[in-house]
Design goal:
This protein is mostly helical. It has helices spanning about 5-25, 30-50, 55-85, 90-95, 105-115, 120-130, 135-145, 145-170.
Length: about 170
């Protein structure tokens, strides 16, 4: 049973770190709604199974977010495959005739598109470094890679983003 102080401290911690963790979850999900679901699931997993583990709570929670996002992606992929088998690709054909997205907040869309073009390994390191402010050591622990590999992926991601966004800055 948690104490009132523990609950208060935990609530303050979530309020302080929640928005950055949501940005992190957003990098592994297809929509904001999915990111919110993943974040909620990760908090529950962390609270039930990991909160008493040694280590940085933020790094443990980021690992939980990543796992929850991967689980969601697998479920969605399986569901999509089942639906495509059932409808013979109808959904894909209908998508060709949908309107293009509106022009609202074009810059944000351009940045999100550029981020999606990055290899997943680079995108997740970038998200952990920028939005979670994790060290390369913490990123390595979270992703099961060396700190040097994390640093390299970060540099490659920044270089790729610069190349993609440069024409937009000067155009």
């Amino acid at each position: 049973m948690e104490s009132a102080h523990e609950h208060s401290t935990w609530k303050q911690w979530i309020e302080a770190h929640g928005p950055r963790l949501l940005l992190c979850a957003r990098q592994w999900t297809r929509s904001l709604a999915d990111a919110e679901d993943v974040l909620q699931e990760a908090f529950v997993r962390y609270w039930r199974n990991q909160r008493h583990l040694p280590g940085d709570p933020q790094a443990l929670l980021v690992t939980s977010i990543r796992r929850a996002a991967l689980d969601l992606a697998r479920r969605e992929d399986r569901r999509t495959a089942r639906e495509e088998r059932a409808d013979g690709g109808l959904e894909e054909r209908e998508a060709l005739f949908q309107k293009l997205p509106g022009e609202g907040d074009e810059r944000r869309q351009e940045i999100e598109t550029a981020l999606r073009r990055l290899p997943a390994e680079q995108r997740e390191v970038l998200a952990l470094k920028i939005w979670q402010d994790l060290t390369f050591e913490q990123i390595g622990e979270t992703l099961g890679i060396s700190p040097n590999t994390a640093a390299s992926r970060y540099r490659y991601a920044l270089t790729a983003l610069r190349k993609q966004l440069e024409p937009l800055c000067h155009g």
